[in-house]
């Protein structure tokens, strides 16, 4: 299967990015043909400082490689290195109904709050559709928040195919039950825009402090609790072994425990889990030429795939 996904370099990656998406990239890379990219064109809808954007792109590449994305197995590249995608985006824009985009949540949420939303944000899902369709992708591993965009992509592909002939392959979203909507420190979806994230890399002491500040309910300590309804437990489950999960689940059902103890267990488990990636990242930081080479090779391979699809689409609609 051709597997493709993108991630925006709009800040440091968090646990939601990892368990919802990046872990899937890595789990799928051995058995499938993975194409993964850093979505810098999408990031321009929010990051307007050139040096900041460049820094985030570099961090994104380091983070993905350190977390286990293997360039021998999967193709890693930067979105803007593939101009064919922007060309394909235009072909999809012609014929895209306004109403379809007006329903998309990123634009709708901003507009409903009276915030300035530009055309880039409005057409964002079409660029995302071009990203997906340009590589004949079958599966798109993402978190739940991106499923609507993949539906838009399918709609656009379907109507293009109906009008011009079978050009595009129909992609499917791939989500992981239990990690499709990782909660943040306040129990809402973990997201940079809610300021409730827990970072994958960064100062371990800071991370521990943030974990200790995760919000919890005010039920009495002695009450038995259903772990499934608690976001602290949901976070713990992402890092712990089956055995430990069973142990902590039993503690919840029994009652008489303090959330502080669970937070400490979570901090310990996360630290152990992330330590190998942290070490790999330090090594990679010292080898920027290697990272650049991986991205250049990835871009060359991705361009080849995208230009085939672009030519197919251009021919179909009468441009060639
Ligand atoms: P982005 O950069 O916001 O997020 C990257 C990936 O992380 C997932 N994610 C989460 N998953 C579970 N729980 C959470 N709390 C959580 N927060 C984020 C997202 O679902 C996503 O999979 N538009 C995309 C980037 C993109 C793309 C594409 C993705 C551009 N082109 C083509 C797939 C295919 C975005 O903004 O993701």
Question: Would you kindly provide a written description of the structure presented here, covering whatever features stand out?
Answer:
The chain is mainly alpha-helical and 320 residues long. It folds into two domains: 2-180 and 288-317, Rossmann fold, CATH 3.40.50; 192-282, Orthogonal Bundle (Tyrosyl-Transfer RNA Synthetase). The protein contains 13 helices and five strands. The chain has helices spanning 15-28, 40-43, 50-67, 83-93, 98-102, 105-112, 119-133, 147-164, 204-212, 231-239, 242-254, 259-285, 288-316; strands spanning 2-7, 33-38, 75-78, 139-141, 172-174. The chain has a three-stranded parallel beta sheet with strand order 1-2-3. It has a two-stranded parallel ribbon with strand order 4-5. The two termini are 29 Å apart. The mean pLDDT is 95. The structure holds tryptophanyl-5'AMP. Residues 5-8, 16-17, 20-21, 39, 42, 128, 131-132, 140, 142-143, 145-146, 149, 179-182, 189-191 line the site of tryptophanyl-5'AMP.
How do you describe this structure in short?
With 320 residues, this protein is mainly alpha-helical.
Question: Keywords, please?
Answer:
Rossmann fold; two-stranded parallel sheet; 3-stranded parallel beta sheet; binds tryptophanyl-5'AMP; single chain
Q: Please, how many domains?
A: 2
Number of strands: 5
Task: Trace the largest sheet across and list its strands.
Answer: 1-2-3
The helix content, as a percent range, equals 55-70%
What percent strand? Answer: 5-15%
Sketch the topology as an H/E string, one letter per element: EHEHHEHHHHEHEHHHHH
Per CATH, the architecture of the largest domain is: 3-Layer(aba) Sandwich
Query: What is the rounded Rg?
Result: 21 Å
Ions and ligands: tryptophanyl-5'AMP
Distance between the ends = 29 Å
Helix/strand structural class = mainly alpha
Identify low-pLDDT runs.
none
**CATH third-tier fold name of the largest domain:** Rossmann fold
What is the helix tally?
13
Largest sheet: 3 strands, parallel
């Amino acid at each position: 299967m051709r597997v493709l996904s993108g991630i925006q370099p709009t800040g440091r990656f968090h646990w939601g990015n990892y368990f919802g998406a990046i872990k899937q990239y890595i789990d799928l890379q051995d058995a499938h043909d993975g194409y993964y990219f850093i979505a810098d064109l999408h990031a321009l809808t929010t990051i307007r400082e050139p040096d900041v954007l460049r820094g985030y792109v570099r961090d994104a590449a380091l983070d993905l490689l350190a977390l286990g994305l293997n360039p021998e197995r999967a193709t890693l590249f930067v979105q803007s290195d593939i101009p064919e995608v922007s060309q394909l985006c235009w072909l999809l824009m012609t014929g895209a109904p306004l109403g379809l985009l007006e329903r998309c949540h990123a634009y709708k949420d901003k507009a409903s709050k009276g915030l300035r939303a530009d055309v880039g944000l409005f057409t964002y899902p079409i660029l995302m559709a071009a990203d997906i369709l340009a590589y004949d992708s079958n599966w798109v591993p993402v978190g739940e928040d991106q499923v609507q965009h993949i539906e838009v992509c399918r709609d656009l592909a379907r109507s293009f195919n109906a009008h011009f002939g079978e050009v595009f392959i129909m992609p499917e979203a791939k989500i992981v039950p239990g990690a499709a909507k990782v909660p943040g420190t306040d129990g809402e979806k973990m997201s940079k825009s809610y300021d409730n994230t827990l970072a994958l890399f960064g100062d371990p002491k800071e991370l521990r402090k943030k974990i200790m500040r995760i919000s919890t309910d005010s039920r009495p300590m002695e009450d038995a609790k259903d772990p499934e309804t608690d976001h602290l437990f949901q976070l713990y489950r992402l890092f712990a072994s089956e055995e430990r999960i069973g142990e902590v689940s039993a503690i919840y059902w029994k009652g008489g425990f303090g959330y502080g103890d669970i937070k400490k267990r979570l901090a310990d488990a996360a630290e152990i889990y992330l330590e190998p990636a942290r070490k790999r990242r330090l090594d990679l930081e010292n080898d920027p030429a290697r990272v650049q080479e991986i991205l250049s090779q990835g871009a060359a391979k991705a361009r080849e795939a995208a230009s085939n699809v672009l030519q197919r689409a251009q021919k179909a609609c009468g441009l060639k």
